[in-house]
Specification:
Elements (H helix, E strand, L loop, with lengths): L19 H7 L11 H11 L25 H17 L12
Helix pairs in contact: 2-3
């Protein structure tokens, strides 16, 4: 099923893994981001640095427990979208707002 799935491989926070050296190279998550999209933006920086993704959607079982998200709001989502647009437009590979704040 993984070979014939119509979904493209993308970085999502669930069931994702990466080598420590690559996390440090990208400087981890961009800590300016709030709810939603921080894992995708991190993955975009990894891809910008040349990392390839693998789709294993039918091999790695995931169970997500539904929960309230009182921290989710349009202002935070728009800030995150702006950061992701900038990452894509500039093909940024590292954030200044991550593990090692420069």
């Amino acid at each position: 099923m993984n070979r014939i799935t119509p979904a493209r491989a993308s970085w999502n926070g669930c069931n994702s893994s990466v080598w420590r050296k690559d996390i440090l190279k990208a400087n981890g998550f961009d800590e300016r981001m709030r709810y939603g999209g921080e894992d995708r933006e991190f993955g975009e920086r990894l891809v910008n640095s040349g990392m390839k993704s693998r789709q294993i959607r039918y091999s790695a079982i995931l169970l997500h427990l539904d929960h309230n998200r009182p921290y989710k709001n349009e202002e935070a989502i728009e800030i995150n979208r702006a950061i992701r647009r900038e990452t894509k437009a500039t093909r940024r590979m590292r954030t200044q707002f991550g593990i090692d704040k420069e």
